[in-house]
């Protein structure tokens, strides 16, 4: 019974009895899609055409593999807890409390007191 090879870039049907060490030509790397370029991580060749990408000849020879390869693990993206729209809106404050400029009044009072002393000496 013929089996299907699951190595990247092979996909041929083979008989286990005739499976030798150089029967399969495959890519040991993973497919890379960056911007408009497609290629394999094990090869430097890149293309923009998907049919060209599928026709790339493998870079490694080995035995056919009848077991499915594990899918590449993508990094887990951590997200924060989803918030309701009302939680995202800024809170409304009827009266905004701001610090009063007390220092200006103190300096003016001291300055006026200083001036008054100078005039009383005349």
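^ Assign residues to that structure.
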């Amino acid at each position: 019974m013929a089996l299907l090879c699951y190595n990247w870039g092979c996909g041929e049907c083979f008989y286990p009895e005739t499976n030798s060490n150089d029967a399969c030509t495959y890519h040991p790397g993973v497919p890379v899609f960056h911007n408009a370029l497609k290629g394999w991580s094990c090869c430097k060749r890149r293309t923009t055409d998907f049919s060209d990408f599928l026709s790339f000849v493998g870079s490694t020879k080995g035995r056919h593999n009848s077991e499915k390869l594990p899918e590449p693990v993508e990094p887990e993206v951590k997200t924060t807890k989803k918030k309701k729209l009302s939680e995202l809106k800024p809170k409304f404050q009827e009266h905004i409390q701001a610090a009063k400029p007390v220092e200006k009044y103190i300096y003016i009072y001291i300055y006026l007191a200083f001036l008054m002393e100078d005039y009383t000496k005349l």
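The radius of gyration is 38 Å.
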